[in-house]
């Protein structure tokens, strides 16, 4: 106490400044307590489900033994990572994961933008609402239902798709067991399910475009296509860039639910990705340390991609996450 008092006497200005900043900080919180209360569930979600579980990441560097706990388990360093890199499945996992992620990004990212631009030009309100309802509805279907619908439509004996193929003289195709068809089926079904919902944020951005720009362009004789290209797209470009950075930062995190439901022994060569491998290793084989190491490796790649793309975007377009 005496030491603190002496320091306060020696640095009265600094102590006063710190006290003033602390009071200003708490005054700002009390003044806007409704906003902090509104954001508190989101903060709690990230703290409980994102940050606290990071404590368990250390088992990637240990030989985890359940009865000894995380701290009591022996340290093995990078042994699990060496095991992953030397694994027979490593090249296949990386190839399938990156290939599926980039395929989904290349096809699934621009289509919602195109849909939003088209719907923004529709003037018939009833037709516009009908299109919105039809395109938004698949988002509310569960992954299990979507995969079940795919199995019904693509069934080689009584599925609608193969019935049409046979009607035109072709031979039925068992799409779900063909490795060459897996990525296309996964991506196209995801596009059908998520395009309408993903377009909402672009429609919101388009709603903020100044109508005076369109009026001036119309007076100058610009066509509708020219106005879309020179006004609408540049206006929503910052939104497109931010979402692209976020999507590219998740290219390795495809999610195993849909892949696992579509996966079988015949298409394993093209459907086995890092997330399904983590599921098999961690849940089915109870190899928790190794599966954590595999998941951590995937997260590091995502983080590196996010930081790199954000830095490039900041230099080229002055638009970035931070």
Biggest sheet character: none
Class derived from helix and strand content: mainly alpha
Q: Averaged pLDDT, please?
A: 88
Helical fraction equals over 70%
Give the helices and strands as they follow along the chain.
HHHHHHHHHHHHHHHHH
Euclidean distance between termini CA atoms = 41 Å
Rounded Rg: 27 Å
User: How many helix segments?
Assistant: 17
Q: Low-confidence parts, pLDDT < 50 over ≥5 residues?
A: 5-9
Q: Kindly estimate the percentage of residues that lie in beta strands according to DSSP.
A: under 5%
**Dominant shape:** flat
Number of strands: 0
Description:
This protein is mainly α. It has 17 helices and no strands. The protein has helices at 2-10, 12-31, 33-51, 69-72, 79-85, 90-108, 110-120, 125-136, 143-153, 160-167, 179-207, 211-219, 224-248, 256-262, 268-271, 274-284, 288-317. The chain starts with a helix and ends in a 5-residue tail after the last helix. The relative contact order is 0.10.
């Amino acid at each position: 106490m005496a030491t603190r008092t002496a320091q306060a006497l020696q640095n009265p200005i600094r102590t006063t400044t710190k006290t003033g900043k602390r009071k200003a900080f708490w005054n700002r919180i009390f003044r806007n307590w409704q906003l902090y209360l509104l954001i508190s569930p989101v903060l709690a979600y990230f703290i409980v489900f994102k940050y606290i579980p990071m404590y368990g990441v250390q088992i990637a560097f240990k030989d985890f033994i359940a009865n000894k706990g995380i701290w009591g388990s022996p340290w093995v360093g990078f042994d699990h990572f060496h095991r992953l890199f030397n694994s027979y499945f490593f090249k296949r996992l990386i190839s399938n994961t990156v290939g599926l992620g980039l395929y989904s990004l290349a096809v699934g990212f621009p289509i919602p933008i195109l849909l939003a631009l088209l719907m923004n030009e529709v003037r018939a309100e009833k037709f516009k609402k009908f299109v919105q309802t039809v395109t938004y509805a698949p988002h509310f279907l569960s992954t299990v239902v979507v995969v079940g619908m795919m199995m019904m439509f693509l069934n080689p004996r009584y599925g609608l798709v193969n019935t049409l193929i046979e009607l035109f003289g072709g031979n039925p195709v068992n799409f779900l067991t063909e490795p060459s068809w897996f990525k296309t089926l996964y991506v196209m079904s995801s596009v059908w399910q998520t395009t309408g919902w993903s377009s909402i944020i672009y429609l919101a951005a388009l709603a903020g475009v100044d109508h005076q720009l369109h009026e001036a362009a119309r007076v100058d004789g610009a066509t509708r296509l020219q106005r879309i290209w020179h006004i609408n797209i540049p206006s929503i470009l910052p939104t497109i860039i931010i979402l692209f950075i976020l999507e590219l930062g998740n290219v390795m995190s495809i999610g195993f639910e849909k892949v696992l439901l579509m996966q079988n022994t015949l298409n394993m060569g093209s459907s086995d990705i890092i997330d399904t491998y983590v599921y098999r290793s961690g849940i089915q084989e109870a190899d928790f340390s190794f599966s954590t190491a595999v998941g951590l490796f995937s997260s590091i790649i995502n983080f590196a991609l996010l930081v790199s793309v954000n830095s490039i975007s900041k230099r080229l377009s002055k638009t970035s996450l931070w």
